[in-house]
Design a protein that fits this description.
Helix content is 71%, strand content 0%. It is mainly alpha-helical and 219 residues long. It comes from Paludisphaera mucosa. This is Periplasmic repressor CpxP.
Length: 219
């Protein structure tokens, strides 16, 4: 695995712990915001769920390659936490371009399902995106509370990740991270109104469990 691949995996794992994903909450798995839209579209299990044809896969592959190049050029020469921080910074821009480009390739129902999967995989981090905040009519007070929850969760997740990064029991570490994600999601949902919770559940769609055998941007 390349250095960039390892960094993306670390970012994904950190995000997974960093924020309990709705995917975990609803029985799915996922990486968190570190796994961007282009990376999702490159994942075999996501492609299967979206029922992509060969032409769509080819076009989406080009979108993913552009995302990979953006990550490569944007993080060149960076290592460790600095590299991960830059990836987070780039994710909004890269995701924005990928979503627009994908919408020109996918059918409306495929775009809708992609967003459901995206929210599930992102988990708590999804609440930091402008589109979800608008769809749920998140107030300034709620946003501040959610930001605080996610920030604390990120710190705790990094500690869990670092504690398990020395060749220990990987499965045990992942289980702790999943539990942490669930707890974080519960804390965020406690800040939502009943109507917001109901709308959020609708936006998640049916549970989806992502499989990580596929390739994505930066690998």
């Amino acid at each position: 695995m390349t250095t960039l691949s390892k960094s993306l995996m670390a970012l994904g794992l950190a995000a997974l712990m960093t924020a309990p994903a709705s995917a975990q909450q609803r029985g799915g798995g996922g990486m968190g915001r570190g796994m961007g839209v282009a990376m999702l579209l490159s994942n075999a299990s996501v492609q299967e769920e979206l029922k992509l044809d060969d032409s769509q896969k080819s076009k989406l592959g080009d979108i993913a390659e552009k995302a990979r190049e953006k990550y490569r050029s944007g993080t060149e020469g960076l290592e460790g936490q600095e590299r991960m921080a830059k990836m987070r910074e780039l994710s909004k821009e890269v995701d924005g371009h990928a979503i627009k480009a994908a919408a020109e390739v996918l059918k409306p129902e495929q775009v809708a399902r992609l967003h459901e999967i995206r929210y599930q995989v992102a988990g708590p981090a999804a609440f930091e995106t402008e589109d979800l905040q608008k769809k749920l009519s998140i107030t300034s007070e709620q946003k501040s509370a959610i930001d605080s929850i996610v920030s604390t969760s990120n710190t705790e997740m990094r500690e869990l990740f670092q504690a398990g990064g020395g060749g220990g029991d990987r499965e045990a570490m992942m289980a702790k991270m999943r539990d942490h994600r669930k707890a974080t999601v519960a804390k965020i949902e406690a800040k939502l109104t009943a109507d917001q919770k109901a709308e959020y559940a609708k936006l998640l769609g049916s549970p989806f469990e992502i499989k990580m055998e596929g390739r994505g941007p930066g690998r």
